[in-house]
Amino acid sequence: MGLFRRSRVNIPVVRLSGAIGMGSALRPGLSLATVELPLARAFAMKAPCVALIINSPGGSPAQSSLIAGRIEALSKEKDRPVIAFVEDVAASGGYWLATAADEIIADATSIVGSIGVISASFGFVDLLDKVGVERRVYTAGESKSVLDPFQPEKARDIEILKAVQGDIHDAFIGQVKGRRGDKLADNAEIFSGRFWSGTAALPLGLIDGLGNARAVLRERYGEKVRLRVMPAARPSLLRRRLGLQAEDLFGAARTDALFARYGL
User: Which of 193, 216, 222, 260 is 20 to 30 Å apart from 59, CA to CA?
Assistant: First the structure.
């Protein structure tokens, strides 16, 4: 029995699934708060590496940065390499998370990339007149009502939004270049916001190989390798009892919309 136990290799696995920073009371999105515990448990295990299984269309750039930074810090602190395995999609913020790993493996049909920033909304300028409603907005600060959907679009508002998007895009590019380095191909489209299949992402240097977690880890550590998925943090008892179904449905709709951008 002792020999059997010594021959088995346990690999801690942290699943990073869903929209980043979005969700509901019952199904919170990915954030530093929701992944801190499973990450800590994973890096506390004695193992040759930590595996991340990623299936995320992106979301909050701030939470993407915070989660990736925490993974990198734990990897350095514990001197433990990290391998990211992409399932359906690691796009936008989902790819930001993948760059925290030392190595990225994707399926040939995975969606990878989308290194860009997007903001989308609607304009309802004429709606209030049609329904006979007068809207009143009072601000202290000339830019406090930027991008108000019930006011005509202003050039100044677009300039403000573009400036913020540019800063976030620069940070995203810096993360990818800093982590992927010379692996990246000399191709300007990499940072255009475009996304690719796993097959096409490989020669671009966005990923390091094709495969899946079980097959790759068995090949490296033997047939007796065991994947130990770290349990995620659960919502509080109060939140579970309250239900909050409307909020939960709204959060699910936002997540579905993000996945839909990639045909998923």
Answer: 216
Written as one letter, the residue type at 2 is: G
Strand partners, 14: 52
Residues with Cβ within 8 Å of residue 45, at least 6 apart in sequence: 10, 12, 228
Sign of the torsion angle spanned by Cα atoms 214, 216, 219, 221: negative
CA-to-CA distance for 180 and 211, rounded, in angstroms?
Answer: 19
Q: How far is CA 18 from CA 27, 111, 153, 159, in A?
A: 10, 14, 32, 31
The count of C-alpha atoms lying within 13 angstroms of the C-alpha of 261, restricted to the half-sphere facing its C-beta, is: 23
The phi, psi pair for 83, rounded to 5°, reads -120, 125
Taking the C-alpha atoms of residue 208 and residue 191, their distance in angstroms, rounded to an integer, is: 18
Residue 63 to residue 31: CA distance in whole angstroms: 5
Pairwise CA distance, residues 238 & 73, whole Å? 33
* Per-residue pLDDT tens digits for 21-50: 865 555 568 999 999 999 999 999 999 999
The residue ranking higher by pLDDT, 193 or 151, is 193
pTM of the complete model: 0.84
Q: Which is nearest to 169 in space by CA: 119, 110, 206?
A: 119
